[in-house]
Amino acid sequence: MASREVLYAVEEGAALITLNRPRSRNALNQALLAALYDALEAAAADTAVRAVVLTGAGTAFCAGLDLKVIGTENLIDPRGNGNDLPDVLVRLEKPLIGAVNGPAVTGGFELALNCDFLIASTGAAFADTHVKVGIHPGWGMSQLLQEAVGRRMALQLSLTGAWLDAGRALALGLVNEVVPPEQLLPRAREVAGMIAANDPGMVAMLRRLIRSRADATLTKSLDAERVGFHRFLDRHGKLGR
Q1: Which CATH number fits domain 6-182+199-235: 3.40.50.300, 3.90.226.10, 3.10.290.10, 3.20.20.80?
Q2: pTM
Q3: Do 169 and 175 touch, CB atoms closer than 8 A?
Q4: Distance CA 57, CA 77 (A)
Q5: pLDDT digits (tens, 9 = 90+) for 61-116
Q6: What is the number of other CB atoms lying within 10 angstroms of the CB of residue 69?
């Protein structure tokens, strides 16, 4: 499957999902979110897909929510079926690798944090600018960032809105590897292929076991964050009702 907003391809057991609004730095609007959720569900349902790579077209990974459409487009339930990003991701029981090709900002940073792990190009950069733009986090920033870099560093990053370059992100453990831009997708595909070559049942089992350590407390924290995000969007206009 493919759409104008999201490209989707499967090769050698791995799905490649590409956010495709390069002129808008892959900012998230309703159409892109709907297409992204469709692509993630297609990968989840395809037995030939054993790993998924997520990246962005152009020079950015994702600039976060498109500020021009807050209050006018349904960013919580873009397909009108009651499913938000956490609902879609929980059904993707396959490794999700983020191939971060450029800036990942705010909601785009959250999207990256929802990946199982990240491989970044030297041009990647990360920033949580919720405090700068006055947008409530909704996809895990308050919990997933501290899981990745520790509570104190997460507080510093989220409360200042400061940027991390790829080298600093590697040093903090936010990303697993940093490679030159031309090597990013080949390396991400290589790692996905290594996963795809393994026993799928055991890959799924180990992924569940590793992720389960934080789930008991994380689930309630994510739910609380999402409720706040819904209230924020409700105060600012349309939720698609």
Answers
A1: 3.90.226.10
A2: 0.90
A3: yes
A4: 24
A5: 999 999 999 989 999 999 999 999 999 999 999 999 999 999 999 999 999 999 99
A6: 17
